[in-house]
Amino acid sequence: MKNHVLRPLWVVLGAIALLLLVRYFMVPADFGVHGESFKLSFHRLSNVDDWRNFTVKYKGNTLCIECHEENVEAHANSAHAIIQCENCHGPAENHPDNPESLALDTSRELCLRCHADLPYPSSTARNQIPPIDPNKHNPGSACVQCHNPHNPELEVG
Amino acid sequence: MSCSRRKFLKSTLKGTLAASVPLSAFRFLSPAESRAATESTGTPGTRWGFIVDTNKCVGCGFCVKACKKENEVPYDAPVTRTWVERYVVTRDGKDYIDSPMGGRDGFTDPKIRGEEIPPEEITKAFFVPKLCNQCENPPCVQVCPVGATYQTGDGVVLVDRSWCIGCGYCIMACPYGVRFFHPVYRVAEKCTFCYHRISKGMKTACVDACPFGARQIGNLLDPEDPVAQIVQTQRVAVLKDEYGTKPQVFYIGLDKNVR
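YS: structure for the whole thing
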C-alpha cells in the first residue's frame, strides 16, 4: 500500500490504542452491566452503596419518645397526633449529640400550612381542618401564645 | 484482472484473518450470558412502588420540607425532588395551577399567581403531590450517554454523582420534569425514593412527614403489602400513561386536569 494511505492509518490506530489505554485506567473496575439489561443497568456498582449509606436525618417519633416521653404521649392523645415531631421541631439527625438542641419552628406560617382558610368546596380535604383567616385572626401574633401545639384543645395558661 | 484459484483462496484466508483481529478486540455478550454474569443490585424480591392519594392531601407542604432537608437539596433554591401542585377549577372550565417554591411552605394564600378567584366560581379544588415515578421503562436512563444513571434491581432510578457529566439529556428526556441540576454538585439530581431509608426498612422522608397518609411506599411484589394491595384492588391511575414509561407511582383520585 502507498505511504500516504498507511500514515494516517497508523495515526488512527494509535488514537484507538490511546483511547483504550485511557479507558482502562479511568473506568472503575466495578463499572458494567449489573442487572437485567444493558439499557437500564449499565453503571458503577458501588454507587448503589453510596446512596444506601446516605445519612438519615429524620429519625421519627420512636427516637423522641426515648427521652421526651411526657411530651410525645401528650401529643399522641391530641388532635395533632398525626403530625410527626420533626415536622415542627426539625430533623433530629444525631440529637442530642449533634445538634444539641433542635431549632423549633413556632412561626405563624407553620400553623397556617394547614389552618389558613382557603375558599374551596367541601370535597377538598383541607376543609376538614378548623380554618382561620390569617388576616383577621389576631394578625401579627404567634399562634403558640394562645394555643398549645401539643394539644390544640388546651389554651396556654 | 486475472485471478487464479490459489490466489483467490489465499486472499480470502488473509481477508478473513484480518477481519477477525479487530473483532476479537470487542466482547459480544448474548442476553443469556449477560444475565448469568450479572448480580441484582437491589433487595431481592422487591419492586418499590408509591401511592399518592390526592383525596387526602391538604397542601401543607411538610413532605417537600422534609424531602429537602433529608436529601440536602438547598432549601431556598427553586429546585426540589418532590413538590405539591394546587389545582383550582372554575365554573367556566378554566383551571388555575400553582406550586410556589414547590409548595414547600404550604398553600396559605387563596390567590393563585397573584390572581384572585371568586370563591363562588370555584367548582373543585385539590392538591397533587408529585415525585419521580421510578418508571419501569425510564427514558432518562436510556438517554444517558455515560452510564451515570441506572435502574437498581428493586426498581429505583439513581444518579451516580461522580460519573454524571452534566449534559442534561436526562433532564430533557423526563416527561414528568422531575429531574434538575443540583445547585451544589452540578450534576443531574432526582428523587431516590429515599434509597438510604427504604433499604434500612424505613419509609421515605415524605411518607413519614405526611400527617394525612396521602403518601405511601411499599413493595409491589409482596401480596401482603398495603401498597401492593391498593394497586391490585383499587382504581389507580398513573401520570402520562401514553408515554409508555410504566410509572410506579400510582394516584388515587387523579383528575383529568392534572398533567
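YS: worth flagging: Chain A has a mean pLDDT of 91.
IM: good catch. Also Chain A is about 40% helix and 5% strand.
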